[in-house]
UniProtKB/TrEMBL annotation, chain A:
One of its GO terms (biological process) is siderophore-iron import into cell. Gene3D superfamilies: ABC transporter involved in vitamin B12 uptake, BtuC. Keywords: Cell membrane, Membrane, Transmembrane, Transmembrane helix, Transport. GO terms for molecular function: transmembrane transporter activity. It comes from the Bacteria. This is Iron complex transport system permease protein. It is found in: Cell membrane. It is a multi-pass membrane protein. Belongs to the binding-protein-dependent transport system permease family. FecCD subfamily. Its main location: membrane. The chain crosses the membrane at residues 67-86, 98-117, 123-143, 197-217, 237-270, 282-305, 311-330.
From TrEMBL, chain B:
Pfam families: ABC_tran. GO terms for molecular function: ATP binding; ATP hydrolysis activity. This is Iron complex transport system ATP-binding protein. It comes from the Bacteria. One of its GO terms (biological process) is iron ion transport. Its main location: membrane. It is found in: Cell membrane. It is a peripheral membrane protein.
């Protein structure tokens, strides 16, 4: 009986956490639609949805607020889910798409692509995916050659990442107008987002998240380490490659329209795991919710505090994310010592 | 019954294990001993297909292991590796992973899976910790949790690499009792053990390795009488009356 009660308590806790995350997501989405350079009332939002282009509030909603909302939500989802996958597959809580240089790799390929094929905007996520995949595979390959300890992985990630960043800087120096629509590309933000850029990337992120969730069982077993996963009958090499590809697709797609938003992929998986302990499916889903809400809130604040001017979202992500993350880290430590 | 025939293999170029022929029969505990670096762990990895063999044959009930998929192998052979990770999950979740080879898509546990995991935890003596986080357990309890995972895998052949490390004497004896129980189920057990005393007392069949080759196989009595241990370890072995330990 006691065992049963504990069981239902942990179930209830996950349920409570997910419900809370959903409520926060809906609340922040609503806030993001209402607030901005011109504030809209809830009534105007409903009206705007029906009236569309014929009213000014409808135009603001359709062409400014909704694309931003979806951009923030999708980018947060992609980076957070990518972070969970990378940390699990590489068995390293310090890893993330930002730290391993995956974001920078995606960014470099996006920039190169924008120089040579400036009109093929629909294909940007594909270029970003290729860059992200090339980076994650080379980081993994180098670390494996050097012994694959937790530290060598991070170090080779940092090294490859700065190489990629140097590449991005070279391109912005040589072709200053290329990323003009994304002038906060390096810090990360959503100013240049258009539905044309967002649509293919968003599809990629949704498919990637769904695939990762469906393969949650395999991801769980992979997280037990190579030997144990092999002895449980998992084709480790195949699934490791598949998951790294998914992680690259998710992070790459997010970077292709939001720039180098680094911190999300590191902190959101940690925050999720501190809130719930459970199967990877649960953690992936909750991370997606938290990542999306967090970026929506940051974007809303970035647009409103100094309206009509706005800050790049990446700055706010660091300003709010770092203290929050440190607070959770210390809280967790206190719990452990208590 | 797992039959190793002229097995050779190792990492990156060199063969650590050379031409070993050995059989793990059902209802018997085979203990592999030998000095550090003699290839005991590599032999176990080759035996369950974790490491690809370079030469020789592996026969499971007279059927070649090469013809089986990884999942089919995992349904027949379980293996406890020496290096284990510390997953951030509960004991119960870890033990349930033992059912992974038996799950179809989309990897959802049935009532039978949960029952098997429960009885595995009971057998391994870890059931009272089922809701605890794995990382918060002591070293010995973590070992038991991994053993329970192996039990839940429910295979005919069980391979264990150094299952007694981290265990104090009481838990070591518990482990030996568990191995004996598995043996009476009719399973084939093979374990690499470091502790010679423990190896001599629980083995039905003792396999002594030296520098990648099998030096001798036999009952502990046989091995002692032939002076194999002196040869393999460079020590002198005397059987003396000593304290014996039993669990309360």
């Amino acid at each position: 009986m006691k065992g049963f009660m504990v069981y239902s308590m942990t179930k209830n806790k996950s349920f409570a956490v997910i419900s809370a995350c959903l409520i926060i997501l809906i609340f922040s989405a609503f806030l993001s639609l209402c607030l901005g350079a011109a504030d809209l009332s809830p009534a105007q939002i409903v009206q705007g949805i029906f009236e569309g282009d014929s009213s000014s509030s409808g135009r603001i909603l359709l062409h400014v607020r909704l694309p931003r909302l979806f951009a923030a939500a999708l980018s947060g989802t992609g980076l957070a889910v990518s972070g969970v996958i990378i940390q699990t597959v590489l068995n390293n809580p310090l890893a993330s798409p930002g730290i391993l240089g995956v974001n920078a790799g995606a960014g470099l390929f996006t920039a190169i692509f924008a120089v040579f094929l400036p009109y093929a905007v629909m294909l940007l996520p594909l270029a970003a995916f290729i860059g992200a995949l090339a980076t994650v595979l080379s980081v993994y390959g180098i670390a494996k050659k050097a012994g694959l300890s937790k530290i060598t992985l991070i170090l080779s990630g940092v090294a490859i990442g700065s190489l990629m960043t140097a590449g991005i800087n070279t391109i912005t120096a040589l072709f200053p107008d290329v990323l003009i629509g994304m002038h906060d590309f390096q810090t990360g933000g959503f100013t240049g987002v258009t539905p044309q850029i967002l649509f293919p990337a968003g599809i990629l992120i949704l498919i990637g998240t769904l695939a990762a969730t469906l393969l949650g069982g395999e991801l769980d077993v992979l997280g037990l380490g190579e030997s144990t996963a092999l002895s449980l009958g998992l084709n480790v090499r195949f699934y490791r490659f598949l998951f790294l590809m998914l992680a690259a697709a998710l992070a790459g797609a997010a970077v292709s329209f939001s720039g180098l938003l680094g911190f999300i992929g590191l902190i959101v998986p940690h925050i999720t795991r501190m809130l719930i302990k459970g199967s990877r499916r649960l953690i992936l889903f909750t991370s997606a919710l938290i990542g999306a809400s967090f970026l929506i809130l940051c974007d809303t604040i970035a647009r409103t505090v100094f309206a009509p001017f706005e800050l790049p979202v990446g700055i706010l992500v660091s300003f709010f994310g770092v203290p929050f993350f440190l607070w959770i880290l210390f809280r967790e430590r206190r719990h452990r010592n208590a | 019954m797992l039959d190793l025939k002229n097995l050779s293999g190792g990492y990156s170029g060199s063969n650590i294990v050379q031409d070993v022929s050995l059989c793990f029969p059902e209802g018997k505990i085979t203990v592999i001993i030998g000095q550090n670096g003699c290839g005991k762990s590599t032999l176990l990895k080759l035996a369950c297909g974790q490491l690809a063999k370079r030469a020789g044959e592996l026969l499971l009930d007279k059927q070649s292991l090469a013809a089986l998929s990884r999942q089919e192998i995992a349904q027949k052979i379980s293996y406890l590796p020496q290096a284990r990770t510390m997953p951030d999950i509960t004991v119960e979740a870890l033990v349930l992973h033992g059912r992974f080879p038996w799950l179809g898509y989309p990897r959802v546990y049935t009532v039978k899976d949960r029952k098997l995991a429960e009885s595995a935890m009971e057998r391994a003596g870890i059931i009272s910790h089922r809701k605890k986080l794995f990382a918060k357990l002591s070293g010995g309890e973590q070992q038991k949790a991994y053993l329970a995972m192996l039990l839940a895998q429910d295979t005919k052949t069980v391979l264990l690499d150094e299952p007694t490390t981290y265990l104090d004497i009481e838990h070591q004896l518990e482990l030996i009792e568990l191995l004996s129980a598995l043996k009476s189920d009719g399973r084939a057990i093979a374990a690499v053990l470091h502790d010679l005393n423990l190896a001599l007392s629980c083995a039905d069949q003792l396999a002594v390795m030296q520098a990648g080759s099998l030096l001798a196989v036999g009952t502990p009595r046989n091995i002692l009488d032939l002076g194999i241990l002196e040869q393999a370890f460079g020590i002198k072995v005397r059987l003396e009356q000593s304290y014996s330990f039993e669990r309360l």
